[in-house]
Structures
1.
Amino acid sequence: MTNRIINESFGPTIRTDKLSQRESVAVVIAAIEAEKPYIFCDAIEGLAYTDAWRDAFLAIRKKANPSMAFRLEMGGLWALHGAMIRNALNDDLLLADALRKILPPYSGGDMTLYRGEGFKNRCKRAYGLCWTSEEPVARYFAKDRASDYPAGTVLLRAEVPKASIVASIHDLDPENGEFEYLVDRRFLKPAMIRVLERLPFTPRPVFRLADFLPK
């Protein structure tokens, strides 16, 4: 009886949340169909309030078919919100599929690309989406994120086939400075990837307020 009372009391809230999620997804798709990049960016930000990330990107994968003009505007979206989108969605394969629908398609050839990756992700071949054409950039990320992975990180070099490259963010946003390319790992074969270096787990320094006060 108690469980029924609790379920009934939360029922309207749950129904309202589901409606909000559907509405937020509808706004995302409507912005694409209306060719309104700035409204689309606002709608993507709005997903943070409804937690409808997966539904939204499933809908993008299924329904989106924008013009090239719209797609060219999306480089700025990725520069501003790419990390937030990846973390919130937590599904690089779905994200790769959806981004192929809203970013300009990559038109270059095969490339040598680099990535700083968690050692365990390397063991599982669960490579992330973001790679760079510049080894020093990848080395920086491998060192900077060594504190986030208890097993440490690795610096990877990959001979990436053009079919694997979702988009060249560097071409869309050259001022970004990371020479970034988005790569769908489903096209990467083991023989294409080399580990250049393994970096151990490095705890971040812990600072105390007393360290900054005059002695």
2.
Amino acid sequence: MKPTQTADTPQTDQQEKLPLVIRALNVIEVVGNKLPNPFWLFWILAAILAVLRFVLSLAGAGVEDPYRTFPPLITIMVVIMGVALAERAGLLPTAMKVSIARVPAGLIVFTVAFMGTISATGTSTSPAPSSWPSSSPSSPRACS
């Protein structure tokens, strides 16, 4: 009797032919896509750390307070939460679009390169390009 082929057999054969590095990256991608939003991931890990610290303190282990040994930590946490809020609200992508729209023509290449380096922060929640406002003759940076 001939074994029946299922719909996922060709995909499995293709995956087996891929190099080990690509297969490992595919696994990392699948696992990474299942992780929660970085904001919630931060708070989940902070809660786990707080519980672990409490349990260890009950066991007699001494833990040094990070807020006393590294005072800027509070400021860093507030800034991270502010950036996350601004990103979620759409402020960062909008600020980048406005910044590029008002650049002199001589600096456009430098500005696009600079915005490309910092765009990872502002584009993870930005709208798709098809929903961006289109350039029209009345817009400030319309091509002539």
3.
Amino acid sequence: MLSKLSPLVTALLIGGFAVAGAAPANADVIERYSLDFSTSGVVDDFCGSGLQPSFTYDQTGSGSAKTRGSELLWFHEETRVVQTFTYNGMTVTDIQPNTLAKDLKIVDNGDGTLSITVLLTGENRLIGSDGKLLAKGDGQIRRLLIFDTATGELISEEQIFGSTGTNDDFCEAILAHWGV
């Protein structure tokens, strides 16, 4: 739940989509789409603590699929995410005001797979019930995704460039705020 990838972006990646990059001027936009999504529920075993806080998840954003001189699709997505977790009347809110995900490189491996290097960049802030900053995370990472072109299945995913920014432990901050 507190990973750098939103649940929707993760679902898109596993579904055979890859997030994409700023295309050159001659790129053709194939599709523009909305990434607006909301859900709520209860988290089982939150951060391994055994707690079951309620949550809300609200995401707004947009994306586009483009070609860059070939039939391969390059994706570019920008989202804003607000997640709120409530336990014992105490609330924490994770705000990710501007997350960018885009393809940096796509390679047809010639064996029925694609290797896609993805850039994920942005920031998030964790705010406690009292309005004070509890933790923050910012910077960028790069991931290498390998997809089966026949099935769209994500075969492997590996972080190839670690975070360039702040990496506070959100689970630790939340549990401390809740007195657990």
4.
Amino acid sequence: MTSRPARLPPRGQDPHITDTDTGTGTGTHADAHPRAHPRAHTRAHTRARILEAALRELGRSPDCTLADIAEAAGVARRTVYVHFAGRAALVRGLAAEAAEAVRLASEVADVPAPDAATALAHFVLTLWPAADRYRVLVNLARQDLGAHHVDEVLAPARTAVARILAQGQRQGLFHTTLPPGPLTRALEAYLLSLLDTVNAGAWADDVTTTATATTATTAATTALIAAGVDSNLATTTVRHLHDHLGPTHSPR
């Protein structure tokens, strides 16, 4: 029996590449640019709804159940488990969103400033909306997140603030009692405690002002004072920045 000679590839084509690899045949790789499946979009939308509902419900009650979150999201409880293995995984999903929001805000706030006091005030005003949105994590971190997850969320902000504080100490604007690293952690703890008072209902924005304006400007002003800036200069700096920037919004 005579064997059939091997078919030669077209001139100029690598003989080791098949027509399914090049997308010219009828194999499964023929479509080189597959379109996103509608189901993937629906899945992402459902996941976002669950996370948004989790923010609301956990903000109302840190002890709420996945069933409560599912009801608030308008999905079955088993749908929540499709996206998250349990409560801890759901909280980690929120932490991942918060980490991205902090990263974006840190990038937005990284702009040239005439001095370190202005830079620090600008940073707090820019970051505060994201911090306020995810402030429920301040309490959840103690029971649902490990220290390494908290570090991942706050790492960009810590780096940026430490750099600003070092600059301010060189300029003689901030006190030098603590080096930039420990001073950064001290300011972080202070700002997180302010967010915790908002969680507890002990501090809220004036409803007659733009949302987050009161808490944001107060947080920025007191952060400057804690860093060693004169109170009058801190107030003037923050007021000028707030008037210039307008209502603070979290970058998306």
